[in-house]
Amino acid sequence: MSIPKHVLEVPSKILNEVSRVIRGLENVKTALIIALFCEGHVLLEGYPGVGKTTLAKVFAKAIGGVFKRIQFTPDLLPADIIGFYMYSVEGKRKLVKGPIFANIVLADELNRATPRTQSALLEAMQEGQVTIEGERHQLPKPFIVIASQIPYGAEGTYPLTEVQIDRFMFRVWVDYPDPEVEADVVKNIDYIDEVVELDKVETVTSPNEILNIINYAKKIYVDEKIVKYIVEIVRSVRKHPDVLLGPSPRASIALFKGSRIKALLEGRDYVIPDDVKSLAHLALDHRIRLKSEALIEGKKPEEIVDEVLKTTPVPKW
């Protein structure tokens, strides 16, 4: 099966357009592209001021569709996110849609909100719908949540629940920029205006085109041995002696779907083991909770995933 030219061109166009404004962060851009064509959600975690919000806004502008930003704060309520019914004195009601009704939703500093407010995203992220006063309302397609959060333990934050974390296909750490990139930003700071820069970002695709590629990606061949390899990796993480709570089946699904897009980005119509390996940390690290003894010893989820990847037999043909 030969991959059509336009299917290969769209992801490249998005990456190129985002890179015109955002310097560095190549791993984050790739993760966003893969999640987009998997209909998955991405959690960006990192220190304040490293460009998480700007990256999400530029990415949303490049892919088109409706974009909404929600600034999460401790006093934010679920109705502020999903919407509510407004009643008139005559008894008539009108639906006031919340910012969740968009193709791209930027949930900025998600862990600033209380668990009650965070939970307003659960149904939307899993089922692509919200329920308001007992009535279900479908969200636009494609629908993707790009959430940012500051590291756990920071003042004024509420740790995300396990259920909330599991809804994110990938978790990406946004680190401080390389010295060359930071020097370039500092040198040109007088000429950089975020609003102007966003105005310069061109929309290079459309929601319909993205949906077409999402459907096409389902044709990418995944051998039965690759499927077993994915399941074995996830099961091995769960059974690791240092793991208290392991990845759910959503992790296996994330690796399966993500590997198909990774293959597509490299111009292949079939998945290889390296596709799975390259996404393992993105899909698994945030879904691992370690035992207290392992934490005392300084173990990290990344180390568990590395161990499993080294010991899990790679399929051969």
Describe this structure in words.
The structure is a single chain. This protein is α/β, with parallel strands linked by helices and 317 residues long. It has two domains: 5-212, Rossmann fold, CATH 3.40.50; 220-311, Helicase, Ruva Protein, domain 3 (Orthogonal Bundle), CATH 1.10.8.80. It has 15 helices and eleven strands. The strands form four sheets. The protein has a five-stranded parallel beta sheet. Strand 6 and strand 7 (135-138) form a beta hairpin. The longest helix is centred in the N-terminal third of the chain and has 17 residues, at 5-21.
Q: What brief labels describe this structure?
A:
single chain, 317 residues, alpha/beta, Rossmann fold, Helicase, Ruva Protein, domain 3, 2 domains, two-stranded antiparallel sheet, 15 helices, 11 strands, globular
Helices and strands, with pairings:
Elements: H1 5-21, H2 26-36, E1 42-46, H3 52-63, E2 67-71, H4 79-82, E3 83-87, E4 93-97, E5 104-108, H5 115-118, H6 122-127, E6 129-132, E7 135-138, E8 144-149, H7 162-166, E9 170-174, H8 179-187, H9 194-200, H10 207-217, H11 224-239, E10 243-245, H12 249-265, H13 273-284, E11 289-290, H14 292-296, H15 301-311
Parallel strand pairs: 1-8, 1-9, 2-5, 5-8
Antiparallel strand pairs: 3-4, 6-7, 10-11
Helix pairs in contact: 1-2, 1-3, 11-12, 12-13, 13-15
